[in-house]
Predict the structure.
Amino acid sequence: MNAEVIDDDRVYENAAELFKAMAAPMRLRIISALCNGEKNVSELLSSIETTQPNMSQHLNTLYQAGILGRRREGVSIYYYITNEKVVQMCRSVCLQMAIED
């Protein structure tokens, strides 16, 4: 789809909401960590240096934005990416940033 033919403000509003939800380095790290499959909070904390409350806050933001899904297994909550387009977009932007540095 060519950007010039997009004539629906909802498309831009939805894109802005998505970008807003992803606009924190910690959230991009979380998305990156989940690119290869679901993980529980403990697994995420072992690969991303932050506190448990901070991790939970960012996970909730991504969940509320519809970027992540979650499921409970026993006492653990597993998070996973619900939209493959988010993975592709995140990888593309981060790769471009790494190339330009």
Remarks:
- The beta strands are 39-40, 68-73, 76-81.
- The longest strand covers residues 68-73.
